[in-house]
């Protein structure tokens, strides 16, 4: 008997392996998945401009990266004793304006290079709700706790999101025509927008993403991973949520990664992934008696395993 509904997931046409170079962009769920890529020692770059939730702000950043449009003094502002950019997350904000500009422009150059080399890009959309700066009439990626009266809150229409996603695809393909796209919608619910409003927001994302997948149905380089659907159906229980009852907890993240790796990681890479996992667990092992012969033998054996895997995959570092 089946006591839960299971989401059918198609095997990827272009699976990720240890030669692949992955870029992950988008919401905080992109970071959850990227932590898994890092743990298993895949070649992965995550959110060089911090967490970004809405499709238009992701498109803006991609446009800057592809065209190498560097930030200047007019693109940053001073508030609360720090310099910020409305296009990036507050994690990058800095008390020194020049340092902020250097950080942002270095990220543009490095990400441009990484994007040219990448085999896969994973884009996670979080919300259709956006904040528009009333003075500049620009959509912002982050408000940086600037008073809300300086922004209008809007729901992006499906047509605008569709076009933004299409623009994002085309921009990236200019730089790297061979790259593989994996789109997903974040399973994190944005309840501060309201319960019905969150559902509306997610539905706009689904409609826009699937419109692009359907209109590019013969393009095998565009794929969709149902992380939101797995969370809502297969993990339909509060035991799979963090304390805020909104974010997936570690058990849920592990399960969604398991479903992802089953379908998007190449079968040839599974043995390496398991070897890396064993090494990671051994590195976390704490001995009661570090000086004992038994522990020294354990360390020597562990070093042999690390050397063997690094001989095969030179990018892997522990």
UniProtKB/TrEMBL annotation:
Species whose genome carries this gene: Flavobacterium bizetiae
InterPro entries, sorted: GSCFA
Domain of life of the native organism: Bacteria
Record-given protein name: GSCFA domain-containing protein
Domain GSCFA, residue spans: 21-260
């Amino acid at each position: 008997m089946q006591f839960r509904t299971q989401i059918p997931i198609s095997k990827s046409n272009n699976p990720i392996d240890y030669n692949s170079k992955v870029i992950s962009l988008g919401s905080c769920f992109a970071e959850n998945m990227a932590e898994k890529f890092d743990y298993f020692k895949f070649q992965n770059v995550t959110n060089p401009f911090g967490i970004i939730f809405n499709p238009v702000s992701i498109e803006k950043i991609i446009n800057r990266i592809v065209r190498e449009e560097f930030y200047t003094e007019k693109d940053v502002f001073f508030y609360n004793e720090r310099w910020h950019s409305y296009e990036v997350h507050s994690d990058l904000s800095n008390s020194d304006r020049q340092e902020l500009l250097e950080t942002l422009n270095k990220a543009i150059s490095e990400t441009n290079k990484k994007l040219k080399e990448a085999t896969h890009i994973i884009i996670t959309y979080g919300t259709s709700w956006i904040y528009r700066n009333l003075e500049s009439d620009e959509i912002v990626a982050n408000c940086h706790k600037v008073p809300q009266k300086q922004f209008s809150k809007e729901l992006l229409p499906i047509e605008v999101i569709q076009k933004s996603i299409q623009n994002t695809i085309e921009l990236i393909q200019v730089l790297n025509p061979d790259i593989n796209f994996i789109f997903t919608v974040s399973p994190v619910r944005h309840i501060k927008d309201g319960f019905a409003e969150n559902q509306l927001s997610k539905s706009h994302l689904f409609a826009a993403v699937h419109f692009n997948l359907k209109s590019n149905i013969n393009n095998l380089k565009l794929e969709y991973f149902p992380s939101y659907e797995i969370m809502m159906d297969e993990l339909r229980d509060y035991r799979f949520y963090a304390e805020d009852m909104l974010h997936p907890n570690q058990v849920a993240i592990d399960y969604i990664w398991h479903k992802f790796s089953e379908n998007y990681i190449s079968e040839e890479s599974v043995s390496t992934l398991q070897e890396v996992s064993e090494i990671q667990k051994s590195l976390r092992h704490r001995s009661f008696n570090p000086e004992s012969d038994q522990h020294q033998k354990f360390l020597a054996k562990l070093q042999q395993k690390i050397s063997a895997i690094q001989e095969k995959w030179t990018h892997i570092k522990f």
